[in-house]
Design goal:
mainly alpha
């Protein structure tokens, strides 16, 4: 009985899978540009809880991303719908986006580590100078 339920659930889930393939739109955003666009969109969406230099928080930067690439949200939506219907292509796009975001994270982590290391050296220098100064007194 249990196996029959599992089979029914499995068949149901398979039948729910969308196999709709949309026709390629005339003004489709290229895969390369889509990777650039999605990378910037992820970066922009990651800033929602962070204050900017003007101390504004929860500012939506998506309009700036669309402006940067000279596209509108409709063109993005049409292209995104097309790519989501072609799972293999969309997976390739997202793998590249994930790689870029990971590279950006590593770059900032390396920079942060060097700043922390430099600050540590500065503290050591300050203590050494203070110790030397105290010895002279």
């Amino acid at each position: 009985m249990k196996n029959i339920i599992y089979i029914i659930v499995f068949v149901f889930l398979l039948s729910c899978e969308s196999r709709t393939k949309f026709k390629k739109p005339e003004n489709l955003i290229s895969k390369k540009l889509m990777v650039d666009l999605l990378t910037d969109m992820h970066l922009a969406s990651g800033t929602l809880g962070i204050k900017n230099k003007d101390l504004e928080k929860n500012k939506n930067y998506m309009a700036l991303v669309f402006k940067k690439y000279k596209i509108d949200s409709t063109l993005f939506a049409v292209s995104n719908t097309y790519y989501t219907s072609n799972v293999d292509e969309y997976e390739e796009i997202f793998e590249e986006v994930e790689k870029r975001l990971d590279d950006i994270k590593k770059s900032y982590q390396t920079e942060l580590d060097s700043i922390i290391q430099e600050a540590g050296k500065s503290e050591e220098k300050k203590r050494a100078l203070k110790k030397l100064h105290n010895q002279r007194e």
